[in-house]
Amino acid sequence: MVERAAQRPSGRGRFITFEGGEGAGKSTQIKKLADRLKAARMRTVVTREPGGSPGAEIMRHLVLSGMGKLLGPEAETLLFAAARDDHVRTVIEPALNQGAWVLCDRFYDSTRAYQGSLGSVPLGLINAMQRVTIGELKPDLTIILDLPVEIGLQRAALRRGGSTPDRFEGETLSFHQSLREAFRKIATDNPDRCVLIDADADADTVAGRIWTALRDRLLPTPASVVSA
Ligand code: Z5A
What we know:
The chain has about 230 residues and is an alpha/beta fold. The N and C termini lie close together (about 5 Å). Helix 2 runs antiparallel to helix 4 (about 75-95), helix 4 packs parallel to helix 6 (about 125-135) and helix 5 crosses helix 8. A five-stranded parallel sheet has the order 2-3-1-4-5, with helices on both faces. The chain contains nine helices and five strands, in the order E-H-E-H-H-H-E-H-H-E-H-H-E-H. Bound molecules: ligand Z5A. Ligand Z5A binds near residues 111, 203 and 206.
């Protein structure tokens, strides 16, 4: 039996974002979910922030190299916003309009957590930039992967091998603990959109938890599921 997702009446696709701290397993889980959706013959687009479009990838290089940090928190936030503006206009909106399921590794909740809660950039400025860059666009579902900071950092360090930590990987343990709290608060404050997933388990178990959340929120009821 192949599960098929319901198309929205307009034919517009679905927008699913993944959030969480370092090494939470977002890329791993996005790949698993994309494979599952493709097997169900859903058109699927995988993308990421910062980046995801040629212009935004240039911004990604700037912020992850640490150059944005030198400009100060507000200017660094503007770089993320400029990247998002390009990414939304040239990749996300066109894909949604063509009926695709768009799976995005980080989106505006990362700005709220990293630049807002951790960087102390005023919420008014973040909201203003959000209005300009994405307008009314909102994820249909946000998966927030939650796990103890030490485990996430260990996973990230293992993957990195001997290479230098990037701009955010190099932050202190207390920064990463506050980040975890910021994401948990986003989940609590936005229960209609966000699901907090316990990511402290093997990758297949976490994938099962994500699928259950997605099925409960975005897939049709059993009566309308198409069998193939
Ligand atoms: N940022 C921001 O400040 N403001 C913004 O608005 C936006 C972003 C959009 C982008 O970094 C940085 O930009 C980010 C926030 C900031 N901070 N940092 N750093 P990035 O794109 O380079 O990295 P990331 O988004 O933080 O993701 P990540 O650290 O690369 O991790 P991940 O994608 O969540 O995890 P992964 O690559 O899937 O897994 C990490 C390793 O763990 C890997 O070796 C896996 O094989 C392994 N893994 C995965 N799952 C498991 C399980 N379940 N068990 C064991 N091992 C596992």
